[in-house]
Amino acid sequence: MPRILLVDDERNVLNSLRRTIHAMAANTFEGETIVETFDKPELALLRAAECEFDLVISDWRMPGMSGLAFLNELVQIQPNIARLVLSGYVDFLSELKAISRIKIFHFISKPWNDTELRLLMRQALEHRQLLNLNQRPSELALRRESRLTELELQRIEREQPPKPWLRRQTADPLELCG
User: Region 148-158: what's the mean pLDDT?
Assistant: First the structure.
């Protein structure tokens, strides 16, 4: 059941995207697909702080806050969200920079092709799922290592309690020498 965030300053684009996604959802995704739309990126960021999304499809050029600025902030809130960008305007240099800096999965030109959109959404979600699976073992290893380190420190403290002079709090380090 993917949760999808759509951000575009044009209401008709949002409505069209929502209809397209709901029409393809039954054949493309397992379970119910939840789609939330925002015509103001700032409101989308507030919602992203409250709720985890699997995929964002954002317009590239919006008044007030560009797609790049929006995605930069969104990645700070939800680093693992899959990212697709809609763009009616092509600026290859900025697109290349964005792809490498904020890891945009793909740019989709407006008007989009429904088949291409479905394929890219599926691929972006699968890519996100693989990244999350790969990230879990390293997170578990860090937690395990952290617990072991903590247990090791507790064992050492039991076996060798700190010297009384180490516990003493003083403002003047020279007092320790006297």
Answer: 63
Domain 3-134: which CATH number of 3.40.50.300, 3.90.950.10, 3.40.50.2300, 3.40.50.11030: 3.40.50.2300
Give 70-116 pLDDT, tens digit per residue. 999 999 999 999 999 988 766 666 666 666 677 777 778 888 888 88
8 Å CB contact between 85 and 67: yes
Domains of the chain, by residue range, sit at 3-134
pTM: 0.68
Per residue, what are the HEC states of 77-89?
HCCCCEEEEEECC
List b or e across 135-152, with b for residues whose CB sees 16 or more CB atoms inside 10 angstroms. Answer: eeeeeeeeeeeeeeeeee
